[in-house]
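Fold this sequence, please.
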Amino acid sequence: MLGCMRILIWLMATLAVACSAGAAGVRVDGLRCEYLTNPLGLDAAQPRLSWVLLSSRRGQKQTACQILAASSADLLRHDQGDLWDTGRLATGQSIQMPYGGKPLQSRQRCFWKVRVWDKDGKASAYSPPAFFEMGLLEPADWHGQWIAQTTDTNSAPAPLLRRAFVLDGKIEQARAYVCGLGYYELRLNGEKVGDHILDPGYTRYDKRALYVTYDVTKALRRGSNALGVILGNGWYNVQTRAVWNFHQAPWRAAPKLLLELAVRFADGREEIIASDGQWKAGRGSILFDSIYGGENYDARLDKPGWDTPAFDDSAWAAAVVAPPPDGLLAAQTMPAIQVDRMLVPKTVSEPKPGVFVYDFGQNMAGFAQLKIKGPAGTKVSMKYGERLTRDGLVDQESIAQYVKRMDSAQQFQTDNYILSGHGLETWHSRFDYDGFQYVEVTGAPGKLGPKNLTACFIHSAVPLAGEFECSNPLMNRIRAAGRWAYLSNLQGIPTDCPHREKNGWTGDAHLAAEQGLFNYASAPVYAKWINDLCDEQRPDGELPGIVPTSGWGYEWGNGPAWDSALLLIPYYLYVYEGDTRVLTSHYEHLRRYVDFLTGKARDGIVDWGLNDWAPAKTVTPRDITSTAYYYRDILVLAQAASLAGNEADARKYAQLAGEIKGEFNRKFFHAASHSYGNGSQTSLSCALYEDLVEAPERAAVLSNLVAGVQARDNHIDTGILGAKYLLTTLTDNGRADVAWAVASQRTAPSWGWWIGQGATTLWEEWNGSSSRNHIMYGDILAWFYKALAGLNPDPSAPGFKHFTLQPHVVGDLTWVRSHHDCPFGRIEANWRRDGKRLLFDAIIPPNTTATVMLPCAAPALIREGGHPLDGRVAGIKTLDAEDGWSVMEVESGSYHFSLPLPGS
């Protein structure tokens, strides 16, 4: 028995050693290409590769890597990189690594994997394999023609296009490359292909149109097949007149299609089925579709099987060969719009006989799905809105104003469905979306109930990248409202609201970008939209206030505080994602804009453009914010120049920035009162936030800012620009307590007052008088991460290669839980009060380092994992005390700190 026990103990010890050795190693996972997992249809000549290291060992990092890229999965399985074999590459870079192998061809699939050498020079196993696939890289690679059902832009019914064909042989692989303008639905052998909606992404179509790549291998079969495409107007053929004049857009044309189906057979043959004059064209059941108006559908006109090979299309006309749109045909390399979830109604009321109002309890973007039985020819109308009138009906007055102003009879945010009379009918619109919480249904036979209508919430399907939760329920509700507002306004472009306008307002977009990147992996959408901004830029550098635009927004609606999206969003992609390409590839556009502003400046001051929009009360002088954004843009441009290797420009613009800072202070700083401009919250926080205040004056200016906030009983008194500055400025300058007092207010004006009024998204106006689904005040969600969790990126080590963890224990908070999936892996920052001690747990992913700042003036009082910080704690490289904080430089790993609560 004793011998058996010894053997068991030995086996257990051996197993423990083996497990320990495995835990001390490193694994490679999370392979991505151009931000995406196994993407199809890329058109970047050198796609960028990224991966994540996994290890439980402190201080683990990559010292070298080897990438294998192969033309087949079998070659890769045998560790043969016939396209690219880097060998052992001495680098710590694990994100945004440009492909450097053999030139890639159209439709080529590249299989790849990577292994790394850890801090001790030990090689990991290879990662699981991944792939990326190229799209059609040259115009000559397209074999098809643009086709349409009609060239009449006033034709209302949605076109149907079909092509039957026969495939002879075993199908090995098939891809469909599709650009249907404005929107399309692709169908194959009677079924919808994929789960995308509202494809392709909205662009300035005469400069750039996007195509989407689909894997349709499993949808095809040997023998007879049929392709079907439904075309919608979208933004390409806007028939609803509104003040932004999209009905007069220079690109406007009737819906049209370019499609290429590439089939590869097991015997090596390839066959191309492309859009051309052999296709047939008809009209279906969609009588009208409008991005603003809604959709009208007559189910009596359904053509069963129209998208199958057996359908008789002899009565259909030949498709019209149409002129192509001007500009570039580019791959859509961002997540498509999809249905996120379906919501059931909270209540159903009948304020008038036969009028049913559905309350879904949540403001959102999307559409309703109807389930109903009734006689053929019955017309059911669904009217969408975010408010109710006093008598309980849907109120569209505020959101319909810019459409109704042009023509009061125009349909707005209303879907109409005419029943076929064939049993239970299920339907939702295809080519529009609405902003709504309420749907008013009229015309239905009989009494409706909760099962007759569900709401479909839609947005660009960006993965979740962060979570924040705390002990304060109000903060959690603000966070939820902000996320619903952000996603509602992420529809292939970042929009202002999902109902009234659906426009890509540049100011709204950059003000919300940081919280967007904390919460979601939305970088590909932003990268696409920066292309749209460049497409809209005039030769002299001027930008419009909305992007894309029909031409509206150059005379009003722009200015530095808005246009700076062109520079700030690429800068945020650099800081948060380590992406240099967006900055450097658009460098000339950035430079052109800064030079345009320089031409507008007088003695370094810019007094032009929109200002601190929608202030609570106090109006800030426009020249303060416009000049501050001009200064910030110059600094971003100088950094972009340096990244692009243009050191002459880097020096030139850095010098210009210094001159502008001097002029700003000469113009706006009042030495006697230590104030700027009119002393508003926006004026002072702007100067501090943008680092325009000279060092000797910072404390006095901050004191004035705090006094101004307290004079408003700790309420915010800014518009959207000041809302971006205020909380961060107070926190970064040691007054997180005041920032908390502002953020946690429940009376007007405040985010909390909105929540108290029933808000489920963020609003446009502090008093709630306008849109109730806007994201422009959403930067408070970034403040939750930066201040309360304490997670801050380091611009000098982009992509969170290095970052700061500095939690602020404020107000009534007793705990915070947060994480963010940065390019290197998951960062966690969690804290809670435990009696008189604060417990702070952090995870720093491999291949990164962090500065940890804990609210304790005496480092000797801090414990990590139960041990004092006396230099023997693994992973902690340096330790110091600074302004009441213990500051330590920390390597990657998991840490568990315990320290006295501040003030205890």
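DSSP finds 18 helices and 44 strands in the chain. Confidence is low (pLDDT under 50) at residues 1-24.
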